[in-house]
Each structure stands twice: as C-alpha cells, then as structure tokens.
Task: structure prediction
Amino acid sequence: MLIYTIKRFFLAILVALTVSVITFSLNQLSGDPAIAMAGETASDSDIEYIRKLYGFDRPVHEQYLSWVARAAQGDLGQSFYFRIPVTDLLAERLPVSMILGVSAITFAIVLSVPLGVLAAMRPNSWLDRFALGLSVVGQAMPSFWLALMLIVLLGVMFPILPMTGSDSWQNFVMPTIVLGYYATPAIMRLTRAGMLEVLGSDYIRTARAKGLKRHTILFKHALRNAVIPVVSLAAVQFGFMLGGSIVIESIFALHGAGYLAWESIGRLDLPVVQAIVLVFSLFYIVLTFLSDLLNAWLDPRIRVS
Amino acid sequence: MSAVLEITGLKVDIPVSAGDLHAVRGIDLSVGKGETLCIVGESGCGKSLTSLSIMGLLPSRARVSADMMNFTGRPLLSMSETELSDIRGDRMAMIFQEPMTSLNPSYSIGNQLMEPLIRHRNASKDEARKRAIYLLEKVGITAAESRLNQFPHQLSGGLRQRVMIAMALMCDPELIIADEPTTALDVTIQAQILHLLAELRREFNSALILITHDLGVVARVADKVAVMYAGRIVETGRVEEVFNNPLHPYTQGLINCIPIPGKTARGSRLGSIPGIVPTLIGETQGCSFRNRCAYAGPACEIDDPVVELAPGRSYRCVLPEDQLKRQGDETIGKTGSLEAASA
Amino acid sequence: MTIAIDDKGARPGLPSANQITGPTPGQQLRKRIFGHYGLLIGAGILGLIFLMALSAPFLAPHDPYAQSLLARVKPPVWLGGSWENMLGTDVLGRDYLSRLMYGAQISLLIGFAAAFISGVIGTAMGVAAGYFGGKVDLVVTFLITVRLSMPVVLVALAVVALVGGSLEVVIAVLGLLLWDRYAVVMRSATMQIRQMDYVASARAVGCSTSRILLTEIMPNIVNNLIVVATLEMAHAILLEAALSFLGMGVQPPLPSWGLMVAEGKDYILFEPWLITIPGVALFMMVLAINLMGDGIRDVTAPENRN
Result:
C-alpha cells in the first residue's frame, strides 16, 4: 500500500507539471500578451515597458520556470483587469464553486446510486426503464438549456427560486440540479452494471447458500463490491463538474471561479484564466489521487499485498 | 435409516428462446444420515441444477417441481424464501465448484466464516470466532487464528476450498452438498480435499451428496451412486453394485473409459462413448441415450422404463437385466471394477 | 484418476448445427437491428435531421440571414403566429425555421469533423499503446491522464478566445481535445485482440506489424470505434453549442443552435419559445446520436449487454 501510494503520488506530480506547461503555453497562443495587456490605445513604449515589467522579453523557458516557481509559492500573478493578486480573487471566488461542486456531486450520488441499485435488482421492471430513460435524457440534455428551462419553470412560471445571484442557499438549488444531473447518467449506469455483475457472482451465491438475510446479501456483500468503481467515477465526475461550472455559473450569475473564468476569458485577463485552469486541473489531480487511495483501501486486493 | 433428503419426480425446466429446456426430467434420490451419495454424469446432464434446486438457489425463471422433495420430513418446495434461508447454511450447506470466486474478495476469511453461525445460531462474535478456528484446524489449515484476518486473494485455490468446507460445517448441517468441489483444483490437491470431505463426513455424521464427473472419486468415497444422463438417472444403486455389475449401457461405457493399471495395455485406446448428448429443448420421447448406444433398437424410441431390481437398485432401459449383464461382461470383463477404479 | 468422458458438444440445450439449422449471422444481425427500438428511433430521428440539413438550401422558406426589423420576434404558428414564419422569427426578424435548418448543417459538420479528427488521434494512440505495450503504453496512458486533468470547456473557451472564434477553430479545438475516450477504448480493445491466437499465428508466419494492425487488429475493433465515434460526435455537438452559447464558439450571424439559444436568452421571460425550439432540436439530435451509438454497441456485441 505504501509503495502504491508513493507511485501514485509521483505520477500525480508528473501530471501536474505537464498540465502546468500546457497552461503556461496558453500565453503563447495569443501572440504578444503585452499588446493585449496594454490595450488598444497604448504607445509602443508602453508596450515595451509592460513587456519588461512582466518579463515577456525573456526566453520562454525562463518565463515558465519563474511562473511555476512563483505558482508553487502561491503567487499566481496579478490580474490585468482587477490589478490585484489572482490569489486574492480566487480566495473569494473558489469557495462558491466548491459549494456548488460538492452539492452537485452529492445530489448526483444520492439520485443515481439508489436508482442504479434498484434498477439492477429488478432488471427490465418499470423502475429499471425509468432509470434508463432518465439517463438517456440526461446524456442528451445540453446543460445550459436545462438551466434556462429550469429558470423558466422555477423562476418564471412558478417563481419559488431566485433566478440569479449567489447570496443565499436558494441560489444554489437550480445550479446544483443542473450540474448534478449532468453526472447522473454515468454514475447510475455504472452502479447498475456493477451491481448486476456482482449479483450474478459466485460469492453472492455463496452468501445465499449460507442463508444470509436479503439485506445482508445486498448491502454487505453486493453493494460494497459494486461501489468500488463508482468511487473513482464520482471523483472524475466531480472534476468534470468544476469545468462544467463555468457554463452553469455564468447562466445563474453565481459568483464562483467558473463565472470569473468566463469574465476573464472575455477580457483576455490571462493570468486569471491560467490560474483557474491550473487550479481546476490540480484539483482534479488531487481528487483522482485521493480516490485511487480510497479505492485501494476499499479493495483488500490492493490494500493487503 | 431415516432419509435426510428424499426426492421423487424432480423436474427442472428452464425457459429459453427456443422453448422449454427440460434440464432435469423426473429424478428420484434419497440420502440418509451418515451416507454419501454420488451423482455422476458428464457436463450438462443436470447434476448441478439438481443440487441447486435442493438448495433453492436456482434463478427464479427456472421452474422446479417434484412429486416429493422432503428435507428431514419437511417439504422444501412449499417453503417460502425466508423459511428456506433459515435452513440454508444451517441444516444444509453447499460447497461449490469454483473456490477462486466463491468467496467475497472484500471481506476477511474470518468475517465470512463466522457469518452462518451468527445468522442462524445468534452466536456472539467470540463464539463464532472460536468455532471458525476449530473448523479451520479441522480442515487442515495451519495457523488458523492468523488466517482469519486474511483475505481470499491471499489464499491458494486449495486453501480457499478448505475454507469453503469449514464454512459449510459451521452450523453442523445434516446435509452437505458438494458440487464438483475438486474440479478447479490441481490434481495433487484434489485427492487431499476429497479425503478431507470423506473424513469430515464420517466425523460429523452428516449426509453428503457429492456431485462429480470423476468415477475414481465415486469409487473411493461413495456409499450410493446415481448415474445421470440428459436429465435422468439412468442407473442407481450401492457403489459396489454399480461398479461391479453395471447394467445401463451408459454406465458400462463410463466404466470402460477408466484405464486400469496393469490391465489396460500401454498405448491401447481408452474407451470412449461416441456421439453427443441430444438437445433437451422441447418434448422428447424414448431413451435419450439411444443415439449413442450400441444396443439400441426400435423399442428405445418409445420408452425407457425404470426397472427396479431391489429397493435402491434400479436402471432405466428396455433390455432385461441378464442381457445387459452379459453385454457388460463382454465390454468390461469381470474383474472387480470398483477396486480398479479406486486404485 | 479422472475418466475421459467424451463430451464433444455435450451440452443439452445447445444443439449442434446439424440438428437445427439456425439463421445465418447476417439474418441474426438484421433481426437484432430491427428488434432494437432505440437504434431504429435514433436512426430515424437522425435521418430526418440529416435530410433537413442537406435540403436546407432548397427547402428553407427564407434566407437565414435576412433581417427584418419590422418582423422581430414573431411567435410560431401555434402561439398565434403565421404560416409565413412557421417557427416565428428571432430578435433580428430572421426566419427561425430557416435558421434551424441551416443550423443543423453546422452541428452535423462540427460533430463529424471533430469526431473524425479526435478519432484519428485517439485511435492511433490507443492502438499503438495496446499493441506495443511497454513504454509506448506508459506514455499514452500518461497523456490520457494529463488530458483528463484539464477541464475541457475552460481550455476550449480560453483557446477560442485567444485565437479567435470561427467554425474552423472550433472544429480544430474540439478535435484536439476529445480524443481521450477513443484512446482509452481502443487501447483496451487492442490489448484484448492482441492476445488472441490468430494474432500470434499471424506473427509466427512473419506478417509485418502494419499488416497485422490492418488485417488482424483493426477489423476486430472497428465496431468499438464506431460506437465511440457516435458518442464523441454527440459530445462535440453539445460542446460546440455550449461554447457558442457562451459567445466563444461559432460567431454570429451563423445560425448555430447554441448561438440561437444565447440570442433568445434575454427574452426568456416573455418569449421562452425562442430558447425552447433550438434547445429541443439540439436535444433531439444528441439523443438520436446517443441512441444510435448504444444501439450499435448492443447489436454488434450482443454478449456484452446486461
């Protein structure tokens, strides 16, 4: 287990470094960032000044190394637009995205895992068909459109929820549903498939041959094994959700990091965009690392070896 | 001797796309306390389905019916799933063919061993633990106490099968069903496990139904034998009767397949039974062995009557006993097949 | 001692071919296709959308770009509009039905092109990793992990914003981002096939690597490829719509469905049909493609169904 952890840790670091290179190279896509920063009215000497100030005149690899070195110390640069450290901006905005992400993944799990289990217990029943329908619809539903439909339904026709803003918990209800529903099909299908496979396994037959009670068989022997792959998937989906939060937050004007990213992309505020790409990626990397550890811990074949 | 399990007219039908698969077509079985019954037959003859139907472990789409199916006098077929689950693991237990996959990979050996006793006897964890250690030692596992904390993947197939046997014995059941318990194991381990089963059966004085396709196994451990072919019992009797005086052509064919040290010439062809088993989907009439039988005649297409020679000794064929006996002697030779087979 | 019981084909219930003459594989496939409602419905809807897109230049009632400030936000016919503009007009007075038909072209084009580009990249990586294993596999697996760590929407938005939005850029960006699932699936499929005896025998008789890949591996993983391709096509279409909706995808005045939803967004309170119509169209298209993908998987590999 220790060796496994160390291996996974180094892999995570390597992935993170690669991601940081890609993120940094976003700089190079825009041509000359100094021109973008200086604005349209700037004179040549202004641009030259900015170029020196931000070190854009130095070789690319030097720029990257100093960027990474500072990022590792928590300095993600200054926002071109707000003229304040990016770290301060993120400290303000990230918690909102995290709340949204956690509540959305919770919503998705609470909806999809029981549904997947029930569907697997009674294949081809009406419940199974309902679950399948829900996942087929969910996979095809553009999330921004579902968000707008919910606004029409719960904000306009039956005005029970606020349409935009991020002041109270009620602002999070609709974004949670939209973002959570996005992850539901995959988690439910995996739960159902895993549960079906486990229920047909030899050790479940053994458990039945021992005369164990139905709920013991189901929850102790079956679910425990079926849930192992679901843990990894939920972690992956959580990571994807942060990426998806940019769409949802901008629709609901929820002042999280996703909304900030969208605004900053519009303003070509590169340090902020880079920082958010980096932070979201790092978050995903940490999450999958933790889920791998949890997986290993849940599965004695990895834990005890 | 009172019968622990008594079955007459057991049928198992499985609906498949082409119609009903009549996998078990009316069989009679009985096994008494302290007795070992071996069910022999090739793969697909319905022997595993028979054992699963006794345990009530068949999938719900399989239809089980019987004229009588009594376990210690109680009708199994009229029991609810809850009543059945009270008996399973307590009064009757099963050992499966696949030791590698029959244990839950997520729980320790000890946890899984203790379950039946806690479930059926309301035993405390401590009592269950003691019993588990006692039985692990009984099945020949050393350092039993430390094994309790191990997980299935840390054990070899032979050890896992020993654990399965110990698990079956936890509640001291009246009936143990072992479905090809050694098929998946190395040849060297097979003998150990069988020896162990036979010994424990004696010690715990329970009834044992051993399902196998290995006649050598039968010869060594069985009291009674039932030879199954295509969902029917074609011949049954005490082990020495069946081996020394096989009547049904299929039984004779099986015994003819056994190489006998010192008798079967080196390099000579082993016996084999030509042909394949017919499909059991839909209605069938007559003897299902007729397409592979050297002595088949027109009468075989109509019927395969049960001929009862004595209580517990019968065969299923249109031919009379003396003719079958003569044919058997010609193909196999008179020297005791039982000793040869158990060599 | 074990007895050799001759059990060639000794499986009751599985009669051998000379006992019952079964349908040919082709008949079986046809039967499975026509017994699979999801596949039929999906193919039906997609066929309609395809026709709509192809026939837009001939059948569209109006020019999708012709603005008419006098005829702005005319409701569709079932909400009191006229047959002149069956689905109404948008905020600039452009005929909604015509825009919808031309929009189907954009969605399908982007879906096909992006799925094709990412398919080439992902399949090459996956097959190489699965076939050669070892270091190649390590590198590919690592690249997949890196790719999965990057948030797609965010990176795509940023790149499009930096490079400038256009149809070609959107296709290129999505094509370069969505290869991960191809690589994952093709890698494991190739690994499975690679262990087959017929691959070993092809090697034993001295077939070249490229010949083995083309004649032994590819034919056996092509159905996986088709399934992933349909799902990725749906994925690309959804992403394009989201990018366009956020203003960083296809640029106006092109009638992208995502863009149509964005343009109608400000009228959400009073004219919700402005977003419902393109939204439903988008939903139907993605649903149809997904149904087809699932259907193809079920039909080509019936043993994998649960």
